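Hi all, long-time lurker, first post. I run a small reading group and we've been trying to get comfortable going from sequence to structure in the token notation. Rather than ask abstract questions, I figured I'd post a concrete chain and ask someone more experienced to write out its structure so we can walk through it together at our next meeting. Sequence below, copied exactly:
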Amino acid sequence: MHLPPGRTARGAVVLCPSMGQEAAYAHYTLRHVAHRLAGLGFVVVRFDYDGLGDSVGHVDEPGRLRAWLDSVHEAVALARSHTDAPLSVLGMRLGALLAVAAAAERDDVHGLVLWDSPRSGSSYIREQRVRQNTSVGGADPELSTFTAVGLSLTAEARADLAGLDQRSLATLPAEVVLAADRPQARALSTTARTRSGEPCARITADDQDEFLLYQTLPQATEDAVVDWFDRTYLETSSLDPDGAGPARTTLRIPGGSERVVRIGDADLFGIVTEPDVPTTTTATVFVPDAFTPHVGQSRIWTDTARDWCRSGRPSLRFDLSGCGDSDARPGVEGHRYKILEHLDEVSDAVRSVRPDDPTDTFLVGLCSGAYHALESGLELSVRGVALINPVLAFPSVEDPVSPRRRAIQRTRPWISRPLGRVAGRIAWKLSPRYHQDPTFVWERMLESCFWQRSANHQLAWVPEWLWTVVNRILVVQRPEQLMRRVLAGGTSVLWVSGEADWRLSTLGSQRALARVARKQDLTLLPMDDLDHAMMRPGARDRVVEAVTAFIRRRTAPPPPRGSSSSGSVAEAQRSQR
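-- Answer (accepted) --
Happy to help. Here is the structure in token form:
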């Protein structure tokens, strides 16, 4: 809920997100839009659809389309409780289809903003299927539910979405309409008109492709959308700051409750899941990557936290600065990954759930979240870390690399410094998929060991033993060295990787890692069918099972019987002491 300052409002705006991976990557952008509109005098509501994000429910339940449209109506009712100013509904991608469908069921929607709307539900599903096939492979053979890039749809939901078609709409259910389309991807007919008979306003979202491919913030389109609101709604109406009553910061879930918390000096957003009857005082912190909010890819952290709550296990999921519902740090853009400050933020999150004993925690992370979990494991000597497709070789933001980065692979300086620029040019030619990525620092490709990716793709025929020799000569902080270091602090490690990620992250170190695993508490779990972002539900479920078993075997004993009936982590700690 975003309220403007003062006692007047120029309008009310409900933001309808997309679904799946698109919703995760757009979360921070829509939050930024909400902040800007509130500063201009608009009441803005952001929400998660039923069964998605942090909302209750599940995607496999019947009547999904009806539940999603009802979610829009409930968000409208919340906005209406604060002001009777003109109402607008903004939808991005699939959210645009739902915005039009919900507006058609009402007579009070004055404005519609359709941000990169698909032409129809059927075309959207086809597009997601293509993205799934080209990125991680086809549908999961174990499931009857359609799954693609973080989106799961039952047969009923697919059929219902197929009925949403904007190409045939001659009149849109609003007085004013703005369509922000990608070039060559216009969803509305050129003859489409508003309810008042006026043509739709149109802008070109030139930065939307890079946003979907590389998660770069679509700043130009955002500016154009905010400017449209600023020019369209000039009059003001009264504002009731109290509206429907005090905001709820707690939620009852099966077996416990969830509450919103703020973490550390950066005021990070987090959600603590607390069981009614805790079976352990050991808390688990789900460490996000820098592009995905606290719900995790395909809502894995939300679903896992709530499943564990039923068995008495507390947990925390949170957003790093510049992502999800956490503000970016001053002078730092949003969606910046692996910045040095993120190391402090993960440590702050750990201490927020176990302030007296941060070692009594588990860290679970995916991709760059796994890297941050490993760094915090080294710093805090936590009980255990679960690394899922960890990325341990990347160009660091700072130059030179900070000595605080103890879990990053690096090429020895005697070769990276004189040959870095030349190696970067060669890598640029060998890696066309990264040419459009504005965040990539080619001159530091050699220093960061990212050269291994290009070498692995181009030299797949090189045997493992030869990579072992190359690594010993060129690489500082090889994977087996990192594992020995974190294990020496008493931290157990679970390393889960898909086939491609496993080869890239352990190139030349697989035998050495196996030797470490035989002697110490290191569990290595390569999975042939696991993609990097865990988009295949069958493989994702097996990862959760492995992480659950890993943590269950290493958790602290439960608190004494009869203590901490409320289930809060802090109370459980006090009763155990």
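A couple of things your group might point at:
The CA atoms of residues 175 and 196 lie 5 Å apart.
Residues 563-577 have pLDDT under 50 and may be disordered.
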